[in-house]
Amino acid sequence: MLSGTRSPATRWLDLLKRDPVPWLLDPVNPSARLSTLRHLFKRPETALHEENARLLAWSPIVILREHWDRVNFWGREYDPYFGGALGNFGTLYLFMQLGMSQSCRPHFPEIEPACENLLDRGRGEDGRFAAGSTAVSSESASWLCYTGMALQIMWGFGYENDLRARSALAALLHTVLLRPELLDCPIASGGCAHGLVKALAALVSIPAEQRGTDEEAVIAVLGESLINYPFDFSGRDVEWLQPTFPRYYHADIVELCRVMAQTTFRTHPRFQGWLHLLLSLKTDEGRWNKARPSPALSEERLFHPSRWLTFEAVHALTLTYGDTVYAP
């Protein structure tokens, strides 16, 4: 390659200077390794049985399984949102973030009753997921982030054809397209970028071949809303530049870039500015540090390189610039 030129196929690696992928493959963190193989190397699920088994045998997962209760699971049976990030809903969302998928369910039977409980007790009459079942159908309820997170759980664990999950998806699509005023969050006293990210993450988690015209339209609306969101990264929104993993309903710059990179907005100048901010957070070794305490599973040390965050950042870059380094 001529000096001063940049190959589009390796541009993401040029931006990092040092390749963190071999570090991501270290089996010390089977979750980050599994995500790296699945998304960067594009290994099919049929080739990941051994990696899924390693994840289920990982000490943090074994401990969580030991704390499972036959009646209340990881929280309270009557309220899946009880306990926040440490309750039933939060634990399911944690498992989804760690890379667990439908293929894990036969070997992890504790997941199914918790998912059924979320579907039965975590939705309101209008189908939306929100904390406090009596408030779910209220127009004043905080629901967008919970619905986005719950749909990621449902699609991740193979409930995409469940009528209750389809009802929640339909409610999300209907609200975004026909009742956009309901997207405002009472906690944020207006638009909430965290909720927009979680909802968009749910839509892009649906395989492209399974999306209809409404799903594609909502992806466009949510993406446009984020592109136009008045982020103040030097003031009000400075915590977005302090990423952590695993997360709960708060998002950060790493999650924002990874989700948006899965849409056509990855070519937008505003998104390119976000990528610049993302790259400004990397270390000289091409890694990203955990900058805030995580709400659950404090497996990685604060202010130290995070394999999870580094994987997500690299994935955002490969989605944006393409990759022939590791993907077949």
**Strand order in space, largest sheet:** 1-2
**How many beta-strand segments?**
2
Overall spatial form: globular
Taking the sheet with the most strands, its summary is: 2 strands, antiparallel
Return Rg in Å. Answer: 19 Å
Structural class: mainly alpha
Instruction: Average the pLDDT over all residues and give the rounded result.
Output: 92
Helix-strand pattern, N to C? HHHHHHHHHHHHHEEH
Number of helices: 14
Which percent range fits the helix content?
40-55%
Strand composition percent: under 5%
Could you list the spans in which at least 5 consecutive residues all have pLDDT below 50? 1-10, 134-138
What is the rounded distance between the termini? 21 Å
